[in-house]
Write a structure and sequence with these properties.
Length: 269
């Protein structure tokens, strides 16, 4: 079959701008200029000013790192914990060990992730690094359940039993075959997991968790400037669109990557 790279252009375009702004923005933003009138346009502010009279474009350049990089790091952290737990629970022959690994996660799943983050944050007052850990650990139960379900199905295949009979080590069986066979399932789940991390990070920042109330942060910008939405909409619309573009683009990119290797109906092998 002919590959269709064009299907990747839209999701990559949606992802590229917010990621580029998050990574490069702080280096090119430069020093903050003098403040102007709140929610005004013109006077060198081509996206206008925010509620504090600061240049919106300057705030956009500075505000992506705390949302985008924290969400990506939290998603990676979630899988670094969830995948080994799911593999260990699925490949063990001891029922008590599987129960001990998975049942506590079922209890945590019953608590909404946002509530869990807010409860811990109210006690510890985390910074960006702490928020990354909180959001990542909050995503572990769901990700571990997905990894466990996928690993259980793969572990029941005759090839896994054959590997055990050949004396292959647990690590070789788990990582060399089971984890490799799970990659499509994990890739499909990763888009959803990153979207959830973006939601938690943005919502936490919106509520003032992990960032200062006047910080240059896209989610904080939405909250801080919503009162002037009809006076100067760019202070709210631009950061909101950047967060939405990253979330939508990530899911579309993973969908396109998975479809790329899916045989068409009726196609010959």
């Amino acid at each position: 079959m002919k590959q269709k790279p064009a299907r990747f252009l839209v999701p990559l375009g949606l992802i590229a701008l917010p990621v580029l702004l998050a990574v490069v923005g702080p280096f090119v933003a430069g020093p903050a200029g003098p403040r102007s009138v709140s929610f005004s346009s013109g006077e060198g502010h081509w996206l206008g000013t925010d509620s504090g009279g600061r240049d919106v474009w300057h705030q956009v350049l500075l505000g992506g790192r705390s949302v985008v990089l924290v969400a990506i790091a939290a998603t990676v952290l979630a899988y670094l914990v969830a995948v080994p737990v799911g593999l260990a629970a699925a490949l063990t022959r001891r029922t008590w060990l599987e129960e001990a690994l998975m049942r506590p996660l079922d209890v945590v799943i019953a608590v909404p992730s946002l509530l869990l983050v807010l409860l811990v944050a109210a006690t510890l007052t985390p910074g960006p690094a702490g928020l990354t850990v909180l959001v990542g650990l909050a995503a572990v139960p769901d990700a571990a359940r997905v990894a466990h379900a996928a690993a259980v199905d793969i572990a029941s295949r005759p090839v896994v039993e054959a590997l055990r009979m050949q004396g292959e080590s647990w690590w070789r069986t788990a990582l060399g075959y089971v984890a490799r066979s799970m990659r499509r399932t994990l890739a499909a789940d990763a888009g959803i997991r990153l979207t959830g991390a973006l939601y938690l990070v943005a919502t936490a920042a919106f509520l003032g968790v992990g960032v200062q109330p006047d910080a240059a942060d896209w989610a904080v910008m939405v909250d801080r400037n919503r009162t002037g939405l009809f006076l100067q909409p760019w202070a709210v619309v631009v950061p909101a669109l950047l967060i939405a573009a990253l979330s939508m683009g990530t899911n579309l990119l993973f969908d396109a990557a998975l479809q790329r290797h899916t045989p068409r109906k009726g196609a010959t092998q």
